[in-house]
Amino acid sequence: MAHFEDIDLLDLQALVAPYRGRPEMLLQALQDVQGVFTGLPMAALHVVSRELGLPLSRVFHVATFYSALSLVPRGRHLVKICMGTACHLRGASKVVGDVCGSLGIRQGDVTPDGEYGVETVNCLGACALAPVLMVDERYVGKVRIKDIEGLFGDRKIQPAAGSGGSASEPAIPGDTGATGGGKPLVDSANREGKDASNS
Ligand code: FES
């Protein structure tokens, strides 16, 4: 699992300072912190709690409630690979293997340089384009190996450990090797009727 490094408390305090004494800005403060650190270090939760005047338990609850927020670093660029039914049936497991092979990491991890993180999700809402992935806000549909090669510059695709798929062939419609899984993109946000997609 990826870890945060070199957390500067002064940077954190400066980041949260505009929200001092404004508990109603909790979600915005957490989004701002995540925007800088690509996740929410525990130190940040303490700073947010103190600056906004909220119990740490409340800050922690919100930080873990929204799937758009993360307590671990996600990478400066987040790759979300859909493992929903349509994508599963059209080779999503192979896409996961090829992306992870290209980046040299496992699903859920972040590249050592902090540039890319890889997550799986249940549906990206573009099933007609399956298999689908997103890099930050950009959709890539009907993913093929050349698309993946183009996404990560000169990083070469290598077979990913445990991916179960060759990286030398395009994603094959009908490949059913995936096991599914991954946390929903905005499930918990919807439960409160709020939109967390901008985080
Ligand atoms: S199942 Fe993949 S976008 Fe819907």
Q: What can you see in these coordinates?
A:
The structure is a single chain. By secondary structure, the chain is α+β, with helices and mostly antiparallel strands. The model is unreliable at 159-199 (pLDDT under 50). The longest helix is centred in the N-terminal third of the chain and has 12 residues, at 26-37. It is 35% helix and 9% strand. It is built from eight helices and four strands, in the order ααααβααβββαα. A four-stranded mixed beta sheet has the order 2-1-3-4, with helices on one face. It folds into two domains: 4-65, no CATH class; 77-198, Glutaredoxin, CATH 3.40.30.10. FE2/S2 (inorganic) cluster (FES) binds at residues 82, 84-87, 123-127, 130, 132.
The secondary-structure class comes to: alpha+beta
Total strands: 4
What are the segments in which pLDDT stays under 50 over at least 5 consecutive residues? 159-199
Radius of gyration from the alpha-carbon trace, in angstroms = 18 Å
Q: Helix segment count?
A: 8
